[in-house]
Amino acid sequence: MLRKTLAATRTMNATKSDVTEPTLCEERWKNAKADENARPIVAFDETGVFAACCRHGTALSLTDMKQSGELAKYGLATVDKLGDTFGSRLLIGYDIGCTFNKTVAQSPLVGPLAEKLGISFCVGSFHGYGHNRLCQLSYHPLYVEGAGLENFEGCERLFSSTNATAITTRHASAFHRRQHITQHLIGWNAVKRCNLGSVLKSKYISALQVIENAPKRLQELDPYGTEEMWRSYVQAERDYYQALKHPHPESAFSIMYIKRLRVLHEKEKAFREVYSVEYAYMIPEMIEKFRNRPDIQGTNQASNYQNTIAKNTRQLESKRTAATEQLLAIQTEVSQLELEHNINPRWSPGGPEWIAAEKLEAHSDFHAALDNLEHTTIQRLMELEKANVSGTGYKLQIFIAKALKRREKALRNALQTYNTLACKVNPPRPTLTFKELIECAYIAHFDFLRQSQHGIQAAEWARPRNLQCSREWQGLERAREEIA
């Protein structure tokens, strides 16, 4: 019953991003929500709660979700409450923080308040790896100035405790349900306040360890590197993915056009074949000869023969009519496309335009296979997380284990398809093993594979050593913010 996360933390250096631009992973998370929570179970009025907690784990607010899934209004109400209570310069982590950032900016009620108070958003460290690389470079805590070493997954720990209240509140009245949850959170907050000193000490020690060890690793990776250089690598990577965010419209048309031409060629072939068919027993001379045979006269075979001829004639005429209509339809569609795009003469197989379009089509198929591989891999990681959540029942664990077994087979099939198409594109893309596939999911390497055109590997920021250096340096910066 208790679902989803929203963690908030005070920060002195919250980033300000362009909230008017649509996020690349918005559609992905909409699809995930439609699959999981499109029609919530209506057995209870309260389908869950929308929670917020601070970076120390203390619960700040809980909002009942009434007869609905997780709607934007619950998040907007929570942001309004946090802004009124804690004031300016808040950094709020949410598993769809990239999309929610735009939602808040477009809200006529909460948007002006968030802009006035300088409230900004990011995604949780774990959920962030389910987003595309460009989104991570703007919203993952590792790349957000002022985030420190906070992972913004505090509500996951909160929910692992409050899930136990579902057993006693499922059949309680509305008053006693809220009372029980409130008493549970009072105890939770009391424990967190008692442990506050040890938590701060632990965070301080962790930051000191990062500050001590990160420069050594950076020195080993790149003895001549500087902070300005590593900062430029991050910005260069962000600029690269930003430039490749939208596909060229001419490429999409070329692919679509040659696909329609292939259909046209198939329909022309089918049309010629169906009109070249001529049954021997349908020729009038053959029919008369058959009727005059001595063994046929005076029997019902002549009538059966006539019925067979009529049946076959109707079938053949139906096939010819369908072939004619299909050919006319595709001819009209292709002619309209050629008229709109000023194509004359028509492209033919083996021509330069056709070859260029086939190359683009191969890249498109490769990207589709990579999208499927990425989606399947992220799903598997999410299910692995659910399998070991505290309080998961035995039957649910068995169900998840079976789902993981099926998912692994689908994952291997998707990997095989990707490797096959990766070898067909020009230039060929790197193939992956099953172990490398899991690593790609954790280091957000999918977008690099998707956009790795010829020569991009030669870019300074794209070299593995420099990528690792930029991540190490970002971690060092966050550790310094944690102490400051």
TrEMBL record:
InterPro entries: KDZ. It holds the Pfam family KDZ. It comes from the Eukaryota. PANTHER family: CXC1-LIKE CYSTEINE CLUSTER ASSOCIATED WITH KDZ TRANSPOSASES DOMAIN-CONTAINING PROTEIN, CXC2 DOMAIN-CONTAINING PROTEIN. This is Uncharacterized protein. It comes from Ceratobasidium theobromae.
